[in-house]
Amino acid sequence: TFVKKTRGGKVNKQVREHYLRDDIYCGAPICKVCDSSAARLSPSASTILIVDTNVVLNQIDLLENSAIDDVVMLSIVLDEVKNKNMSVYNRVRALCSNSLRRFFVFANEHHKDTFVKEMNKESKNDRNDRAIRVAAQWYQSHLGGAAQVLLITNDRENKRKAIEEGISAETIESYVKSLVRPDLLDLLVQPSSEDVDMQEVEDLRPSKRKVIYTEHKPMSEITSGLHRGIYHQGKLRVNRYNPFEAYIGSESIGDEIIIYGRTNMNRAFDGDIVAVELLPQDQWHEEKSLSIADEEDVEEDVHLAPSSADDAPRTAILVQGSAGDTNAVSSRPSGRVVGIIKRNWHSYCGSLEPMPMPAGSGGTAHALFVSKDRRIPKIRIQTRQLENLLDKRIIVAVDSWDRLSRYPSGHYVRTIGEIGDRDTESEVVLIENDINSRPFSSQVLSCLPPLPWSVSSEDLANPIRQDLRHLCAFSVDPPGCKDIDDALHCTSLPNGNFEVGVHIADVTNFVHPGTPLDDEAARRGTSVYLVERRIDMLPKHLTEDICSLRADVERLAFSVIWEMTPEAEIISTRYTKSVIKSCAALSYIEAQARMDDSRLVDPLTTDLRNMNGLAKIMRLRRIDRGALTLASAEVKFQIDTETHDPLDIGMYQIREANQMVEEFMLAANVSVAQKILKHFPLCSLLRRHPIPTREMLEPLLRTAAAVGINLDVSSSKALADSLDHAVGDDPYFNKLIRILATRCMTQAVYFYSGDLSPPEYHHYGLASPLYTHFTSPIRRYADVIVHQLLAASLEIYKLPSIFQDRPQLTSVADNLNYRHRNAQMASRASVELHTLIYFRKRPTDTEARVVKIRANGFIVFVPKYGIEGPVYLTPRSEKGSGEWYVDEQQQKIKKMDGSVSYNVLQTVQIHMEVVEPQPNQPKLQLTLI
Questions:
Q1: What are the b/e assignments for 886-903, b being 16+ CB within 10 Å?
Q2: Helices 656-679 and 588-596 sit at what angle, rounded to 10 degrees?
Q3: Of 849, 621, 628, 901, residue with least CA distance to 736
Q4: Torsions phi, psi of 136, nearest 5?
Q5: Residue 275 in contact with residue 259, Cβ under 8 Å?
Q6: What is the per-residue pLDDT across 579-602, written as a single tens digit (0 to 9) for each?
Q7: Which DSSP category does 545 fall into?
Q8: Do 516 and 522 meet the contact criterion of CB atoms below 8 Å apart?
Q9: What are the chain's domains?
Q10: What 8-state DSSP symbol labels residue 358?
Q11: Segment 854-887, tens digit of pLDDT
């Protein structure tokens, strides 16, 4: 019994009943009392480990190593881990459910011999530690010496009490040392020097440890400062070309705050939620004074003394203002990080840079880890296997970053493979973007129907399903597409109108809510398309066979069917589950060739032409409403089927056939959004595209103004019209302006209708008040959810219970957005990797466009290959010599003597080749010709 204060300030008496039992198994097969059929531990285990909460939270990388087994995971520990770190909790649950690992969950809180009552004046933490010791003692007496029970804890007090109570207890480090596996010691998380007695630090390194960074403010002070407007909160985004330059978008001041230099970043990582304090205005940097940083620019804080032997000063980068004025005042607010609100640390992929071996280190070497992601600072690790790791890509996790160290401290997690090997580098892309490429588990695969699968007589007789096999439905996809999730049909009606149908693979007929298959698809969120392979959201049986709408086979579909006038006005819409038989699976090139060949008058070609005519009208009407026609730098590789190496590279070509399919998919998505929202106004999954702010569009406006183009951004319609009129002397100019416009946009995101008000549902890019994703359930989980909603709105099925749980729905939408963004980033990284492989043996001279001016050069875009990168004007030896002057207004960089100048959007000739300025760090270097 206890009392609890409500939000309204009332005090209520609460009574909680806790049931205990005496039949919970211990999980050890050597036990003579418990049912051994439930055993998860090894029959030959000589030692059974019981780990406390902090060991699980801090040493999860070690626990995941197969050398650590026969572990009892207490339910009290799992609950505490769940409350403190959901990511670690999910990893522990995966360990406990992995049939190849010997981890057993023991419900100590419900066993009558291991449950402990709360004592007066005992903290929750002390009570949990006592419960862990009681459970360890119970195991010891329960197994009667058949195996040693060892409590693993780094808490000195807990260990002392355990030993006093007759329990064997060790720290994680002493246990790992006893295994005589030096490689495992690398996995241990080292305590930060702020966790260690400061006197010990001084004894270890007398007079060498200096404070480099200012102390982070406590949360209470940050909250108060945010409330009073002294601090500003936002997500730190580090510039991909210059790791010493970062931004946070601040709602409180309605502008981006720029943070320059590692000192001002104050140990914040890319993606951290931080509290920032504005600097005095005379310390604000003009944007033109910011440089592109080179690979070798490691530290910029030249005034800092080296803090220790392994924190020696590095090459400095000088920040140069316009015409030598290093502190030019501008309207760009600058700031410094005063505290970290939420860390974004995870594991990073990269390679090691060796450091001098410290004397008497007993085989332990210090090394600096250099992440593949340039935005991540170098990480200091200790390793006993330095020589074996120097030519490898490895994974490192960050443990801490204290004020005394220039670099964060971390530990080695595992080796991925040889540097430069294509499979290794592709694996790096997946890990860096948190993409699960593991094979589907047996539990997931057991949810699939057996192969060969075909439409059954029950399917055809089902009253919810309409037989549409008589229609000439066809699909139009990229060449070689196997996961075909949409087909179309277009039939002329006697009244002169058209019946047009969009038929989508009926994935939810096989993916049922709450099954392991559904759970796995929800976690993965989306399929990921790399240059050389696809990582599926659903198993291949479904994506390429059972659900794929291939030619000449009967398949189950979910159909949206309209009656349309020849002017593409929708007269009526109906939705039905269906059975279809596609008459053709065309590629975009084949469909385009059919439409263009005037000799062809067969029914399929006629349907294609009719659809294309309707699509053109729909597209024009959409553009008239204000939909944006943006462009992206999509690249197409031709891949060698045997070696998987790129043979050719070029920009992806969009045809009328692509646009025709896109138009009807957009129309289906809009129709379905209207249908589900009408029935479920509070729990429909929709997709919105927020209006970009004036600040976001500023770089585009500046660039356009510099080339004499005035863009109106007052509405999407005004922007669309001005983009149409932004025409230069050559055909590529307009596409380049559209690519730049795309980059200024906000990301489109999934959300649930109950979380926002209807005006916020708007999709800016499509100029549509409502939008969702319905047309790709094979590769997007959002579409699976929308299929469930549509089926429920037609009263085919009941709505799954998750739709009543608002917080759960919000977390599903958050995961979909996270996974969607990561998939995009992985695709881009895969393109960059294959671009590097392609140009390794092919140095090339080509044409490029200047897209962004910087103090020491400019960023260019290479239209032929869709590549973007920096071109340096100032040689490294002369960095910051003041030879070049940036004209912000004209978006121009020119020599001080006026002899040479380069403008934004100007065409330049460049040389591209792969160089390796530092060992194991190849990069594509762009040099001005």
A1: bebebbbbbeeeeeeebb
A2: 110
A3: 849
A4: -65, -40
A5: no
A6: 999 999 998 999 999 999 989 889
A7: I
A8: no
A9: 15-185 (3.40.50.1010), 347-419 (2.40.50.700), 442-686+771-822 (no CATH), 837-928 (2.40.50.140)
A10: P
A11: 777 888 888 887 788 888 887 654 444 567 787 7
